[in-house]
Structures are given as structure tokens and as C-alpha cells.
Please model this.
Amino acid sequence: MKTLMVLFFSFFCSTLFSQINLLRVDSWRDKVQAALTIVQINEPAIFKEIVAKSTIQSGDLKEAGYAAFCDVQETPTGKILWIMIGLDELNKSSQLEIASIIVHESLHIQNRLHDQPGRNWGNFTYKEKQREHTQIYNYELAFLKNAQASNDEIAGLKRLMRKEKIPIF
Ligand SMILES: [Zn+2]
Model:
């Protein structure tokens, strides 16, 4: 995790919203910025509590085996919230899909801050992960529908949920 974070720091940019760190290509920043605006409009509470305080980064997560992930880092001066989005996801996803990834990771962060502070996702049992993901993926699905996602975007998330064996409400 530490090594990954150092890599992510090769480009840094401060914006109106969150801090967005992206590697190499500037156009990705516009896509993430558009996604952040979608989150801000559709999920103002999550945006205010989590997203606006998060550092959003991207890097090649293929080897780590993640589409995206998040972390809450405890430091002497406070908590640092991180959302990492894989380069593949950034390339292939629509603005709204990226917004839904940001909502998904923000809900994980929210749970780490409130329900089970300090717990590491890596130490969760399969059952605990499935329980949290059932709540998060279904919230994400409602978010997409609410934000007028296309049939393809909704089908894409449902496909992922079925693959992860998450019940669809
Ligand atoms: Zn997740």
C-alpha cells in the first residue's frame, strides 16, 4: 500500500473540490472532475462528509486486482481519506460510472469512520465483506437509477453484482 501511494504522487493538483492526483494524462482529470460534480448534485451529504475531504488518485491497479479501493489513514494530525481509481476503470467508464465508483468507495470510508473505525478491509471475513457490499452495491445501484443512468450502465453494475454474488434489491 505504501509503495503504491508514493507512485500516485507523481502528479498533484489541487481543485475546487477534492484533491485529485492523476498520472500522466490530463484529460482524466476532467473526467473525474465531471464525476465529482455528479456526486455533488446527487449525493450532497456524502459529497460533503467524505468526497470533498478525500484525496482522489489513480494508478495501475491491475496487479493489485482492484478496480478501485479506498483507505483511511490515521496520522498525528488527523485522518487522511483516500480513494484510488484504477486506470482501466478511468479509461473505460463513463463519467456517471466513475461517479458511482466514487460513491461506492465513499460508503466504505463512511463505514470505516463510523461503524467499525480502524478496521482493515483485508481483515474482514468473506461474510462481513458480503454484508457491507450488499448495502453498498445496492446504494450504488439506486444512485445510478436516480442519476438517470443508461440501461447499459445499470446492466453493467448488475452484472458485476451477480459476479460478486451480491443480492440485488
Ligand atoms: Zn467495495
Notes: Helices lie at 2-8, 27-42, 44-49, 87-92, 95-113, 126-146, 151-163. The CA atoms of residues 34 and 44 lie 15 Å apart.
